[in-house]
Amino acid sequence: MNVFVFDIETVPDVEAGRRFYDLGDLGDDQVANVMFHKQRQVSGSEFLRHHLHRIVAISVALRSGDRFKIWSLGDEQSGERELIERFFDGVDRYSPTLVSWNGGGFDLPVIHYRALRHGVRAPRYWETGDDDSSFRWNNYLNRFHYRHTDLMDVLSGYQARAAAPLDEVATLVGLPGKLGMRGSDVWPRFQAGEIGAIRDYCETDVLNTYLIYLRFELIRGRLDEDRYNIECELVRASLSNESKPHFTAFLNAWFRG
User: 164: pLDDT confidence band, cut at 50, 70 and 90?
Assistant: First the structure.
């Protein structure tokens, strides 16, 4: 089975904000502040509605055959359209089980809107059985199908009041959780040109999600203890071979846990 764990990082779509609110030639920071202010008036929170986000990073972990790999799609100069195309190319190529944390509530709806914005085709992802009958009863779009496993949804029993943050669940099971950066830091770090740091942060969220997924596979009986430990060692070996600072920090925190 191919498993494709993913996470996205976003910033305000200031281009859309400029058009929606007729903000002329105001700078990006000023436009974003107007967007945040208007959202606070509606909901009491600055967290923008899904269609007002722009994707600046998509990180993935692929478990396929005898290999495990984690990376961020494209490079630091890649535009949003390219990131989305690469994401759906992976779905088309592997027909994987998608795994996320709150992907059904946030990541995928944002990807949907941004794919619509750019006209990105993704026939395999949108398949619901019309052309492939195997997708009729297990597809990416149905909330209760495992072809997309939203761990936050599944573990909370699809009850919003029982949902928990990725960072806290990761810490609960002995994983590193967040390491020096939060989602609220993405916009200022993006403004400072630190897209590399954002991609690294996104990758550590994917690592936490994948390792929670392995624990989930253990408790539902799809992995036994020996296989679970082998899968964890595969992740450790892969991160060690990469020799990247954020992976080394993750490994050090994981071992302490």
Answer: very high
CA dist., res. 18 & res. 2, Å (int)? 41
Structural contact between residues 106 and 50, judged by C-beta atoms closer than 8 angstroms = yes
pLDDT higher than threshold 90 for residue 149: yes
pLDDT tens digits for range 46-90:
999 999 999 999 999 999 999 999 999 999 999 999 999 999 999
Cα–Cα dist 106/222, whole Å: 27
251's tokens: 């490994």
CATH number of the domain at 164, please: 3.30.420.10
Q: Report the 10 Å Cβ neighbour count for 121.
A: 11
Q: Could you tell me the residue range of the domain that residue 248 belongs to?
A: 3-256
Sign of torsion over alpha carbons 191, 192, 193, 198: negative
Name the residue with tokens 């296989």: 227
User: Taking phi first (over 0 means left), then psi (-120 to 50 degrees means alpha), and beta for anything else, what does residue 193 get?
Assistant: left
Its pTM surpasses 0.85 = yes
Taking the alpha carbons of 35, 39, 41, 42 in that order, is the dihedral positive or negative? positive
Overall domain count for the chain: 1
Nearest to 231 by CA among 213, 243, 244: 213
The b/e string for 242-251 (b: 16+ C-beta within 10 A; e otherwise) is beeebbeebb
Separation of alpha carbons 25 and 152, rounded Å: 40
